[in-house]
Amino acid sequence: MSLSYFWSREFIGKRPFLWLLLICNVLGTIYGYIWYGHQISDTVSRGQYWQVIFVPDSPTASLFFSIAILLLLYPPRTALGAMVQQWIEALAVVTSVKYGIWAVAIIFAGQAQGDVLVWQDWMLVVSHTAMAVEALLFVRLFHYRWTALTGAIAWTFLNDTVDYSYGVFPWLPGQLYDNLSAVELFTYLLTLVSGLAAWLSRKYALHKSSM
């Protein structure tokens, strides 16, 4: 059995593998929300309840991906369910790629300006890299089309706008607050790049399946 088999559509679509991935992502999602606990509490303490949904970026991306995997295990049986599935899948890919890359870039940008990395930082580098990789890997099993992808990109831009208009972006290494405008620009550009990656990878997957 070649190594390429373990990256194949056949292997990643097996139910035991999907269940393993679902469990890992659910656990990561729970941990992520706990990680954001202080920032969520801070937002609530200021009475900005409507902003809370925009605070935990990475765990929400992981939540989208977990739901997308669950819908692969138990496909919807109605047209409405299929439409919802496409939207969830598009959100899962765009946000997982975006926040996976974003977190790793921010960690190393902070290190470049003098931040000392600890073991939690390396854990975040590994887990967020995995977020981006698994999202692009599973595009081959997803069903989203351009309409759902456009909505996912719009939602992510809305999240960016709330983050930097109201100051609820993920807390940064202290060294980067002097470069907040550059971080904001990078965040917006990364949304575009992630949307493009989601579109190109889906287009490639459709092309391969038609061959």
Explain how this protein is built.
By secondary structure, the chain is an all-alpha fold. It has one domain. The chain is 74% helix and 0% strand. It is globular, with a radius of gyration of 18 Å. The chain starts with 8 loop residues before the first helix and ends with a helix.
How do you describe this structure in short?
By secondary structure, the protein is mainly α. 74% of the residues lie in helices and 0% in strands.
Q: Please summarize the sheet with the most strands.
A: none
Secondary-structure element order, N to C: HHHHHHHH
Total of helices: 8
Strand content: under 5%
Rg (C-alpha, Å): 18 Å
The dominant shape is globular
Proportion in helices: over 70%
Q: Roughly what is the average pLDDT, rounded to an integer? A: 92
